[in-house]
Amino acid sequence: MNIKQEILKAFHANPGRFISGEELSQTCGCSRTAVWKHIEELRQEGYEVEAVRKAGYRLLAAPDRLSAEAVIAGLDTKRIGQHVLAYDTVVSTQLLAHEAAAKGMPEGTLVIAEQQTGGKGRLGRAWHSPKGTGIWMSMIVRPVIPIPKTPQMTLLTAVAVAKTMQQETGVDVKIKWPNDIFIGGKKVCGVLTELNAEADRVNYLVIGIGINANTAAADFPEELRDIATSLAIESGTTVDRVRFIQQFCRIFEAEYDHYLRHGFDRIKTEWEACSYTIGRWVTVKTIHSELEGRAVGLDEEGVLIIEDAAGARHKVYSADVNYGANE
């Protein structure tokens, strides 16, 4: 943790209170002059810091900007979110997270950006990522699980995102199998999991999460306005993006640790309880075939089960799911 992160952590731990330069220098392990220098840097980045002689410093306001210092400062997780790479504009946080993972960045590292120019979803589809409105991030995890179980991590992440949305905004969200979050029939978030593995073990996963947090209706391209929404539109309030990321990290870490210790059962139950898909009549399109039927649940591995009109049940591992009129 660098000096700016230590200073912000101290401010978050003492909201509204003046902290003396001496106390901050001891906390950060640096001189009072270095403290002053880093506070000036924070001011240049948009933080409003009040300084009063003989009283010290206190934080009055933080910018609506995603920075590594802000995310880490108020975070109490063990590893998820404890390392953050923050950027202004990137092609894709997924690409940068793969590079960071290959270089050995630890599990839980987040790559976040204010804007993506080449954001992507499943099957290479483009993901609209306007500047300063959303949460565009990728996370590195290194689970010790068999390769066939890695799709469960997408379902786990979707559950963690849905829980965070509900807690932070109060909106009713649903998960469309396997990786989309919907509010009122419109998409608000997508999850993209990419695997790097050898023949018999997982090296790492990069999990991309794109959330329309404070996107206004006018910010969406015309072709998306009828099918996409944002948390701000649905809740009527502006989302504190830093706080949202911190809460997601806490929830994800708790779900992830439970999953590694106890398996998939709890995630399966939580996912089904929040499902947009279960019970609906769907058309499932894979590379090789098309199937119609009712989605009846997940199996113990997280595979979608479809029951066709004749009552036969089919396992769907990867596909596009569309919803029909017969539901």
Automatic annotation (TrEMBL):
Q: Does the keyword Transcription regulation apply?
A: yes
Cite the binding residues for biotin.
Answer: Q116, K187
Q: Which Pfam families match?
A: BPL_C, BPL_LplA_LipB, HTH_11
Catalyzed chemical reaction(s): biotin + L-lysyl-[protein] + ATP = N(6)-biotinyl-L-lysyl-[protein] + AMP + diphosphate + H(+)
Keywords (alphabetical) are: ATP-binding, Biotin, DNA-binding, Ligase, Nucleotide-binding, Repressor, Transcription, Transcription regulation
Q: Where's the DNA-binding part?
A: 21-40
**CDD domains reported for this sequence:** BPL
What SUPFAM superfamilies does UniProt report for this protein, alphabetically? C-terminal domain of transcriptional repressors (SSF50037), Class II aaRS and biotin synthetases (SSF55681), Winged helix' DNA-binding domain (SSF46785)
Q: Which Enzyme Commission number(s) are on file for it?
A: 6.3.4.15
InterPro entries, from UniProt? aa-tRNA-synth_II/BPL/LPL, Bifunct_BirA, Biotin_CoA_COase_ligase, BPL_C, BPL_LPL_catalytic, HTH_11, Transcriptional_repressor_C, WH-like_DNA-bd_sf
Record GO cellular component, one term: cytoplasm
Q: What class of enzyme is it?
A: ligase
> GO MF terms on file?
ATP binding; biotin--[biotin carboxyl-carrier protein] ligase activity; DNA binding; transferase activity
* Role, per record: Acts both as a biotin--[acetyl-CoA-carboxylase] ligase and a repressor.
For this protein, the record's HAMAP family field holds: Bifunct_BirA
Under which name does UniProt file this protein?
Bifunctional ligase/repressor BirA
